[in-house]
Amino acid sequence: xxxxxxxxxxxIVEMAWEDRTPFEAxxxxxxxxxxxxxxxxxxxxxxxxxxxxxxxxxGRVTKHAKLRPAGVSRxxxxxxxxx
Length: 83
Fold this sequence. Notes:
Blueprint: H1 6-17, H2 23-30, H3 34-44, H4 47-57
InterPro entries: CHP03643 (IPR019882)
Protein name: TIGR03643 family protein
Pfam families: DUF2805
């Protein structure tokens, strides 16, 4: 597995926790497929946090671009980043 900087690791973990960010976006930006994200999360989270994350993303259609409804074309809510 590629070595990531501390800021890259932080961003990957953040993206993995976000409901609307698909695994494909993480793969595009960082080259990690879903299985790689799972391994990284297992290694960098406490065991209880990892279990919570797995329960949260299991079966969630927004974490996979092909399963998303047609109206969801972005990875964040428009009000998420206020200026």
